[in-house]
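Hi W.,

Here's what went into the run:
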Amino acid sequence: MRWQRRKDARPAEIVDAAISVFTEKGYAATRLDEVAKRAGIAKGTLYLYFDTKEDIFRAAAHHAFESNLDAVGAADSAPWTSLRERLPELLLRLIDVANENRFPAIFRMVISESRLFPDLARIWHDDVASRILDLITTLVVQAQIRGEVRDGDPRLFAFSITGPLLAGMLFRETYGAFSSHTPELQALALQHATTVLDGLMLPAQAQADASTFKSSGVHPDEPRITGASNI
Amino acid sequence: MRWQRRKDARPAEIVDAAISVFTEKGYAATRLDEVAKRAGIAKGTLYLYFDTKEDIFRAAAHHAFESNLDAVGAADSAPWTSLRERLPELLLRLIDVANENRFPAIFRMVISESRLFPDLARIWHDDVASRILDLITTLVVQAQIRGEVRDGDPRLFAFSITGPLLAGMLFRETYGAFSSHTPELQALALQHATTVLDGLMLPAQAQADASTFKSSGVHPDEPRITGASNI
Amino acid sequence: MRWQRRKDARPAEIVDAAISVFTEKGYAATRLDEVAKRAGIAKGTLYLYFDTKEDIFRAAAHHAFESNLDAVGAADSAPWTSLRERLPELLLRLIDVANENRFPAIFRMVISESRLFPDLARIWHDDVASRILDLITTLVVQAQIRGEVRDGDPRLFAFSITGPLLAGMLFRETYGAFSSHTPELQALALQHATTVLDGLMLPAQAQADASTFKSSGVHPDEPRITGASNI
Amino acid sequence: MRWQRRKDARPAEIVDAAISVFTEKGYAATRLDEVAKRAGIAKGTLYLYFDTKEDIFRAAAHHAFESNLDAVGAADSAPWTSLRERLPELLLRLIDVANENRFPAIFRMVISESRLFPDLARIWHDDVASRILDLITTLVVQAQIRGEVRDGDPRLFAFSITGPLLAGMLFRETYGAFSSHTPELQALALQHATTVLDGLMLPAQAQADASTFKSSGVHPDEPRITGASNI
DNA sequence: TATGAATGAGTGTTCATTCAT
DNA sequence: GATGAATGAACACTCATTCAT
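Here's what came out:
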């Protein structure tokens, strides 16, 4: 923990302020004046605790990663049941935990700064991203062993399971301010749990029924969109 | 008239150079010296074609958006078949088209700069992101009408369908340089097509079989991972 | 005439354009783009006739001085009469000639740039300013010799004679755009001719009369200002 | 608290330095490096106290105007006497006050920059130039009421009274560095006071005498003039 | 320890000058 | 000769970093 210079509260306040500015503006556009202001101190005081702007950024990133890392660890200790029973609540929890730990904003920051700070991207990857994928992958593997889940690369299944939530979070984070199509994350988690478990498809018989229904004269275009859309 | 040709080509050359630097460093960290250097011109020459750095950025963004916008439009005119038949190839095509048009890098840039340039984020949202989601949503709705796809919010289904690919692309883009877990996008597309259509779950009978199998002494931890993983 | 590069019309057009821009904006704020535009040529063409911006400025200044120099010479050959008879028309002519030759604008430019181009200021001084003063000084000396004009430094008399006109011109040039107090130069010339010849003062008897008049009840403040003012 | 003192003094130091550079070089040719250097600070320090170069210029101009404005106000409270008694000392005082307040240099700067900063020219006009003219105009009007001064537009009389001094100041300011004919301002003020009060002309009898005198061969006054001319 | 005034290297932008056509 | 695209040195302005208090 090289980046933690002092034992008292100051560094933590600075780091909190730094996270908020860095996630908001990005590294390059962040002014240390702004960080100091949000931390309630003078700009020069930053240099009592950190050597450079980069130092502050790294400390902020590490701190931000930590809480997410802890959260992943906590999720890991969940009880052992079938995937079908567990997945919906797991996805809901992922969303809650992610929001509690500012995961979307920090993930976005990692995406933005990963070229300038590849070592930080690696830490996030190793400590957070990979761990979440590993957690899901392990669940899938266990379910495969139990015969609950079909054959297939469990790591790709992990993408199938978590990808939509990630996409939803990024959508909110990036377009949330103006898009009316931003998905409701909880609804997404619940519907996706079902979707990924049982698929989009109806059994053939239902399809036949639906075909009959369709031939009875209902317009095939956009009948349910309006009803189901969250616009 | 070698120069005349150059004069016409200059803005495009600059825009190309700009896209490469901006996507690499982000707006704030991009030095116009670097852009000029990559375009093979002097810094002052940039100002013959653009008024400000912001101008260059906007031109670069618009140009980058355009090719993706065109690609989405092209994908839209696909033939009319069942979702089951169409989805795998559609996802494969999405990946190809995305890569051809530097979609991941540009998407990443949009994510990074959306706070500083909300208008650009909106354009990307309206012209690219929303359109892709709309395209998928429409397919789903039509399939629902045909009785092919189950009830549910088709817009959330669109996230279930595209989210994993997006996550995979971002994963490559962000950690690709060092992660050994980066998913193979084509494999992901194919497996995810099946997954999202039919679900992860095996029929109950298969589960019973698998349970039997499992109780026969095989270690439940990571048996197939090594086989299926792309490590 | 080092500054005249070519014999054809081009240089003259450039010089004319240059005078107009330089007098308008000053040396530093003048853009050669603007000069070229007003001359109806491309910027690069300027360099076929002149080596540097300074060169153009010097050529423009010399040309502008020349016409004024010629005008002073012409005024010099005026007929020989008494100062009283000659002064009014002389001042009127000075004003006409000055305006015809853009004297106020050029004088203003000389004032503005005299520190940056002291050699030009010296030329203007020697060729124009001093000559005008010498012309007047000589008239005064001659009048003194004739006993027409009282004792005193004739060079200072020259300031007494020409200063008000100069001040009026500068006033117009500098505040003319917005001041409602800008003097009418012809009226100034005529009234000043009388003033400087015979003085402001009334004979003592007139003063006594006026005092009587005043005691008859007229308000002492601003009675004639409104009537006589040129506002 | 040496610094505290400095901090308070800084803006004034900067403004002083700025006045000196701006009056010397003009706005466009002034380099902020030079201003900083003369103020004994680094370039960046300027921006702790002012936002832009224009800001610094305006502050300098306002400050320079202020002292002249105050000086005009002070002159206004002069005692009430006849114009004949008052004018010589008034003109002498005007010259002293003008020099003390760098009036010539600042007036020159106003002339130079009035096109780029018409609002400043207006302020100078309203606060300084007009006020001086008004002060003189009022004196003249009062003298006219008393019967001391002849009929005529008192505002034009104000030009007749002040113009030579102004011309003399500008002459010094513009050609002072090299002209050997630069008028001595105090001598000019005194001689002009007499001239403008009583006129250049001698009474007819004196003229007759002078003619006689002249014919006797003696030079009546400074026939050195021709010798002193700088033609 | 804390401050915030001061610094100066670095960046975006301008424009006189050059030069291939 | 004439053009105007290209250049690059120079300047206004910013901001991470220093340091006297």
